[in-house]
C-alpha cells in the first residue's frame, strides 16, 4: 500500500517540462523533515513549503498500485492527445515507490517522472528523473535528466555539481520573503555560467495547483 497526500491533474510549473500537462502524485513523508512545524528548526531541509503530512489532500489516501492506476486513468482528460504523464513528488517519493508501482503506472500508458532530493537510489524504468539536492545531505543519485538546485542554499555550490551526469542544469530561486533578491542572484550566476538555466515557479505566478 502507498500513502499518498494528494493526486491531481495540472500543468507542470517548473523545470524542463514547464507547461506540460501532468498528473501529480504527492507521496506522504520525507527523510529530511517530518513536515511538522515543531520540527522545522531542527530539520535537515527546513525551508520546504509543501504539505506532505497525512493522506487528507485531494484524492489522497492509502492505495494499492491498482487503485492508483484507476485514479490516474480517471483524472487524465480523454480528449488530450499528448502522451499521458505522471509526476511523482513529495515529500520524498522514493521512500515508497517500487518496481510494482512503476509497472502499474506504465501499464496505464503513462510516462513517469520523479522529483527527488537524490538521497535514495530509484528503481529502474523511471522515464524522467529530476534531482533537487539539499544542503547537508549525501547525494547518491548523481545521474538523471534534470538537476534543479533551489538557490541560494548555504552549503550548496552549483559549480560543484556540474560533474554529475545530467542533461539539464537549472537554478530555481528560493521562494519566500527574499524571492526578488534570490531571483537576481540566480540571474547573475547564470549570466556567468551559461550551462545553467533559470527555472521559475510559474504555477505560483499563475495560480495553478
What is this entry, summarized?
The chain is α/β, with parallel strands linked by helices and 209 residues long. 21% of the residues lie in helices and 27% in strands.
Walk me through this protein's architecture.
The protein has 209 residues and is α/β, with parallel strands linked by helices. The protein has one domain (2-206): TIM Barrel (Alpha-Beta Barrel), CATH 3.20.20. The protein has five helices and nine strands. Helix 2 runs parallel beside helix 3.
| Mean model confidence by pLDDT | 95
User: Low-confidence stretches at least 5 residues in length (pLDDT < 50)?
Assistant: none
Largest sheet: 9 strands, mixed
Question: Would you report the number of β strands?
Answer: 9
How many angstroms does the end-to-end distance come to?
25 Å
Quaternary organisation of the protein chains: single chain
CATH topology tier name:
TIM Barrel
The helix-strand sequence is EEHEHEHEEEEHEH
- Estimated radius of gyration: 17 Å
Spatial order of strands in the largest sheet: 3-1-2-4-5-6-7-8-9
CATH architecture field: Alpha-Beta Barrel
Q: Output the structural class.
A: alpha/beta
Strand content: 25-35%
The CATH class is Alpha Beta
Give the % helix.
10-25%
User: How many individual domains?
Assistant: 1
Shape: globular
Find the CATH superfamily.
Answer: Aldolase class I
- Per DSSP, the total helix count is 5
Amino acid at each position: 500500500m502507498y500513502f499518498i497526500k494528494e493526486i491531481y491533474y495540472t500543468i507542470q510549473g517548473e523545470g524542463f517540462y514547464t507547461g506540460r500537462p501532468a498528473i501529480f502524485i504527492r507521496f506522504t513523508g520525507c527523510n529530511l523533515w517530518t513536515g511538522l512545524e515543531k520540527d522545522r528548526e531542527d530539520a535537515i531541509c527546513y525551508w520546504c513549503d509543501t504539505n506532505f503530512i497525512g493522506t487528507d489532500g485531494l484524492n489522497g489516501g492509502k492505495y494499492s498500485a491498482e487503485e492508483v492506476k484507476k485514479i490516474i486513468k480517471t483524472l487524465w482528460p480523454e480528449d488530450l492527445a499528448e502522451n499521458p504523464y505522471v509526476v511523482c513528488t513529495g515529500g520524498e517519493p522514493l521512500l515508497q515507490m517500487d518496481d510494482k508501482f512503476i509497472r502499474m503506472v506504465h501499464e496505464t500508458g503513462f510516462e513517469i517522472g520523479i522529483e527527488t532530493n537524490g538521497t535514495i537510489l530509484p528503481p529502474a524504468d523511471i522515464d524522467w528523473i529530476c534531482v533537487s539536492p539539499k544542503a547537508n545531505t549525501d547525494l547518491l543519485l548523481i545521474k538523471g535528466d534534470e538537476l534543479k538546485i533551489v538557490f541560494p542554499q548555504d552549503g550548496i555550490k552549483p559549480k560543484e555539481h556540474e560533474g554529475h551526469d545530467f542533461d539539464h542544469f537549472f537554478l530555481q530561486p528560493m521562494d519566500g520573503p527574499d524571492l526578488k533578491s534570490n531571483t537576481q542572484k540566480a540571474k547573475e550566476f547564470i549570466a556567468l555560467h551559461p550551462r545553467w538555466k533559470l527555472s521559475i515557479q510559474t504555477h505560483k505566478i499563475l495560480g495553478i495547483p
